[in-house]
Design goal:
Order of helices and strands: EEHHHHHHHEEEH
Number of domains: 1
Strand content: 5-15%
Shape: globular
Mean pLDDT: 88
Distance between the termini: 39 Å
Length: about 240
């Protein structure tokens, strides 16, 4: 099910954090537009838009992969390409959605002067989207502690680690090899999951519809939690 996002003016999956997105944008806009919009506003605005676009892209690629699921044991090379392309899109858009959210938070924190001045001075021209980098450069102050704690939970989660590892593998190394089961003299039963083999940079894992849906739901919750903490930054005393 898709619903219209007031922030993005496009339809987004129903589990997207609509209310949290609107609250964050309203709060951040009120701070970043008090003066003539500068670099922080431009970077924040672009990232905020990208959050919705990448979330929808992740959802669409998940559904493309699911549509091809029933053919996974008898797929032609063309179908195999389409399925692997959809999986690559899912991992890429999912990680991009997380990083766009962190990038928007970085721009906001930079405007609010909540970044470590020593670390910022070393890399003044760099803008960070990685959750690890954002957590590192945020000052440890009462108003930032909740966001830092949320970032640490994200960084330590198995879903984030897998999303990042698989995106990196498929982005510039290779697709994830699949182990196929052969059966002598009879047709194979319908596959419940695909068995992906270990590579030099990823562990072996099984993937089916439920696993992909679970990761997508985790993405929605993670983005929601980050947006909530971003709103709280704007409402600090």
């Amino acid at each position: 099910m898709m619903l219209l996002s007031k922030v993005h003016s496009i339809n987004l999956p129903s589990n997207f954090p609509f209310s949290e997105m609107e609250a964050f944008k309203t709060a951040a806009d009120s701070i970043l537009t008090l003066e003539i919009p500068g670099a922080a506003w431009q970077e924040y605005a672009g990232a905020t838009n990208l959050i919705g676009w990448r979330f929808r892209g992740c959802y669409e690629d998940m559904n493309k992969w699911m549509d091809l699921w029933n053919h996974c044991n008898k797929a032609s090379l063309e179908e195999t390409y389409l399925r692997e392309r959809a999986l690559f899109g899912f991992f890429t858009a999912g990680l991009s959605c997380i990083e766009a959210t962190c990038y928007a938070l970085y721009a906001l924190a930079r405007h609010l002067e909540l970044l470590d001045p020593q670390l910022l001075a070393k890399k003044r021209d760099e803008w960070h989207s990685c959750p690890f980098d954002l957590n590192k450069i945020l000052l440890e102050q009462p108003e930032t502690l909740a966001l830092k704690a949320r970032l640490q939970v994200l960084i330590a989660s198995d879903n984030y680690k897998r999303l990042k590892e698989l995106r990196n593998r498929m982005n510039h190394r290779s697709d994830i090899p699949i182990n196929y089961t052969l059966n002598m003299g009879a047709e194979l039963p319908p596959a419940e999951k695909q068995n992906f083999a270990r590579t030099t940079s990823t562990e072996a894992f099984n993937l089916g519809v439920s696993e992909l849906e679970s990761m997508f739901n985790w993405l929605a919750i993670s983005v929601r939690d980050l947006l909530v903490e971003g709103t709280n930054l704007c409402e600090r005393p």
